[in-house]
Amino acid sequence: PSELFKKLDKAGFIRRSTYSMPKLDEALKWLRDEKSLYVEPCIFTDAYTDADGRVLTEYTYWSYRITHMETGDEIHSEYEYIDGRRFDFYEQAAVAGIDYALDEIVC
After folding, report:
1. pLDDT score, position 16
2. What is the pLDDT of residues 29-88, one digit of tens each?
3. What is the pTM of this model?
4. If we measure between CA atoms, which residue out of 4, 2, 16, 20 comes closest to residue 107?
5. How far is CA 55 from the centre of its chain?
């Protein structure tokens, strides 16, 4: 099994599907329902500019944030950090958010 599955298993995730590993939506829902954590993959647009502030190139990327559902407090925002991780796809950001939630908050 993957490292992420091992972490979910350790955190008490009960597999509700016939897959060898939970689907992303199952893991995200479990974190919401059982741990009150909302892991939200987010898409952003940023740009490279020249010294005069003219846009040279625009690009998009995915990142994530984690909010505590009961308090509304934002627990972690990967995109807020200058060296924050940026991902090409929603799924990559979702997995990274789940992984962070399990490592730093749940387990």
Report:
1. 59
2. 999 999 999 999 999 888 899 999 999 999 899 989 999 999 999 988 876 655 567 889
3. 0.77
4. 4
5. 29
Angle (deg, nearest 10), helices 90-100 and 24-35: 40
Phi, psi of 27, deg, nearest 5: -65, -40
CB 79 within 8 Å of CB 66: no
Tokens 């008490």 map to which residue? 12
In the block, residue with structure tokens 């625009």? 58
Report the distance separating Cα 65 and Cα 40, nearest Å: 5
Longest dimension (CA), the chain: 56
One-character DSSP codes across 36-92 = -EEEEEEEEEEEEE-TT--EEEEEEEEEEEEEETTT--EEEEGGGSTT---BSSHHH
Backbone phi and psi for residue 75, each to the nearest 5 degrees, phi listed first: -85, -40
Token output for 61: 């990327």
